[in-house]
């Protein structure tokens, strides 16, 4: 059975964000997403592949902006999908919009 993106990419919430993202040992790529967002669905399989292939050096999680307004507001997220890379509890890179796996890895390369 092929894993779906929800099996590969963990979900975080306002409640678990500090523990799962800010206190993580690895860099964490957070996908700020919404169920009504077509580009968010387009990039989901890309992030699932990256989560699986880069698990040794990168954690990938998703946060639903409609269900978690506190975190969304705290980081000034206005567009979906926003991909934000956190390292040592700090946002170090922010990208807006869907992109190919190769382009995403290139854009994140030096920050991971």
Automatic annotation (TrEMBL):
Alphabetized UniProt keyword annotations: Disulfide bond, Electron transport, Redox-active center, Transport
Ribonucleoprotein in keyword set: no
Pfam families: Thioredoxin
Record keyword Disulfide bond present: yes
UniProt cross-references to InterPro entries, sorted A to Z: Thioredoxin (IPR005746), Thioredoxin-like_sf (IPR036249), Thioredoxin_CS (IPR017937), Thioredoxin_domain (IPR013766)
Positions of the Thioredoxin domain: 1-112
PROSITE patterns: THIOREDOXIN_1, THIOREDOXIN_2
PANTHER family the UniProt entry points to: GEO12009P1
Family stated for the protein in its record: Belongs to the thioredoxin family.
Protein name, entry field: Thioredoxin
Protein source organism: Streptomyces luomodiensis
Name of the gene encoding the protein in the UniProt record: trxA
């Amino acid at each position: 059975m092929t894993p779906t993106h929800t099996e590969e990419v963990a979900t975080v919430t306002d409640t678990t964000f500090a523990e799962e993202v800010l206190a993580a040992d690895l860099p964490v790529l957070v996908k700020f997403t919404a169920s009504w967002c077509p580009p968010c669905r387009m990039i989901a399989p890309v992030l699932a592949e990256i989560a699986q292939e880069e698990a040794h050096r990168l954690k990938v999680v998703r946060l639903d902006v409609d269900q978690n307004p506190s975190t969304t507001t705290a980081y000034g997220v206005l567009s979906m999908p926003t991909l934000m890379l956190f390292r040592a509890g700090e946002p170090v890179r922010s990208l807006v919009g869907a992109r190919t796996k190769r382009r995403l890895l290139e854009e994140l390369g030096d920050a991971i």
